[in-house]
Amino acid sequence: MANLPIVQFEKKILETVEQNPVVVIIGETGSGKSTQLSQMLHRKGYTDSGIVAVTQPRRVAAVSVSRRVAQELGVKLGEEDDIEKLVSKLEDKVRSLAEGSCMDAIILPLHGSLPPEMQVRVFNPPPPNCRRFIVATNIAETSLTVDGVVYVIDSGYVKQRQYNPATGMYSLDVVQISK
């Protein structure tokens, strides 16, 4: 966590957010509003059941803030996401099962920002007596055949880049799949 002025107010900010449906925080440039508030809310658990969005009026600022937060959290920019969260939840669930209640499982992510050497792991057959779970974006939708797949579970949603004429900006939105 960075040592920025806003950090000293974390407890008060979180208390205020819990007690109010809308909170406006004002602080000087460089105080940590953009990079620290989202992390405070994440640590408090707000991202367990929803998302925390940080808006920036300029693309350069938005990219800069994203890089800074990813660096501070120790994750690769753009990987934290939804796929990694689901992989983590599945791994926790498999670990929590009673011994002998099911066979071993290997859980593999598959998305476009994953390095190629990690992507090819989904094509390797699982070890004996081991079930393979592949958590994928729509990268696996076309031109890709993974041998041994028995079931496909589709959420019915996709992240899609969309233009908003009101703001004049593009955004990556989760929308229902059309077919």
From TrEMBL:
It holds the Pfam family Helicase_C. Its EC number is 3.6.4.13. GO terms for molecular function: ATP hydrolysis activity; RNA binding; RNA helicase activity. Gene3D superfamilies: P-loop containing nucleotide triphosphate hydrolases. It catalyses: ATP + H2O = ADP + phosphate + H(+). Residues 36-179 form the Helicase C-terminal domain. This is RNA helicase. It comes from Corchorus olitorius. It is an enzyme of class 3 (hydrolase).
